[in-house]
């Protein structure tokens, strides 16, 4: 199948060609004709499968069929996302795909001045990409009107609900017209998602191109068991030994991300942190520096798990396993995208063995365990409950609501079936220091 067979017009096909796309991904091939048929959609797919083009291309096509004399504050298509990074990414895609169309778009989110956003909307915007909080701020200031919206998209709906946006979303839905076309894209279909879909969608077509909560086959996953106090040392060793570049590292907390970044820099590894306490300017600069290889390592909390899209990102490291098992899939999904290969490495201490057990149960796969010479696990260290970090009320989080004190059998040296690495030991950093905040 080609994009030409999907019913898209010449201007959009030219823009797609400019992006180097040759054929649609499975989610695009299934969703574009259904959306063009003006049906509501409930879609689920693995991360990195091209969902953004799956809903933006048909929306652009339908909007271009009908030019309207709209009020300058009126929005025709509204796309809601959970994070600033994802909003900016979606907006960039829309600009790329609409370059030959007489349609305008804008993105709005918090953390930056609201007045430039108001000025952009005042000039007239067909498509608005927004985070829920900033959208409500603009509506409250009478800077825009969503009463005539023709298309609504909830992108990463599961993440939005998990981040506590449900009340904001309900307020926004109450202001929208009932006859709009609604598209809900989610990686997981929890009870909350199903309830939202029932209230939002009109006889939706269900699209599911792959099993939910399954990691991509293009990602090589590896576990290194290590004592918590030596995680930083092991991370620096791996980066320097194999000369890794563009390494995305996930921590559970903002405080932990900052401390790890400082330690990496102390070890001579260029790094930056990105999380919710950083200003938008700092987040934007860190991401830009990472994309253009000005820095080797980007240390992130889960706020970035669904907002970072980098072509051929080679390595993702879970410095700490996430409290919520589903977040593991989203984290490692930053690599191995669009058919490219990638490596996802998790540094697992004794406190996290139950987290690992939950993750392997979720993805229905035993992750390969590889022993690094010189980083033997101390069998005298006992597991302690993991405090703080992002919690989830979803049932899919398994044991995540309580502190962890159990251990997984065979954590010592090779007794848990780890494959031995021939790599020599290389001590390159000081010991880990604790500290945790909500990420």
Count, helices: 14
Q: Ranges with pLDDT <50 over ≥5 residues?
A: 390-416, 422-439
Distance between the termini: 43 Å
Query: Going by CATH, what is the homologous superfamily of the largest domain?
Result: P-loop containing nucleotide triphosphate hydrolases
CATH architecture of the largest domain: 3-Layer(aba) Sandwich
Shape: globular
Question: What do we call the CATH topology of the largest domain?
Answer: Rossmann fold
The major β-sheet equals: 8 strands, parallel
Strand order of the largest sheet: 10-11-9-12-13-8-14-15
Encode the helix/strand succession as letters: HHEHEHEHEHEHHEHEEHEHEHEEHEHEE
Number of strands: 15
**Tally of distinct domains:** 2
Supply the CATH class of the largest domain: Alpha Beta
Broad structural category? alpha/beta
Give the averaged pLDDT, no decimals: 83
Radius of gyration: 22 Å
Describe the structure.
It is built from 14 helices and 15 strands. It is α/β, with parallel strands linked by helices and about 450 residues long. It has 2 domains: about 210 residues, Rossmann fold; about 200 residues, P-loop containing nucleotide triphosphate hydrolases (Rossmann fold), CATH 3.40.50. α3 crosses α4, α6 crosses α8 and α13 crosses α14. The longest helix has 15 residues. The two termini are about 45 Å apart. The C terminus is likely disordered.
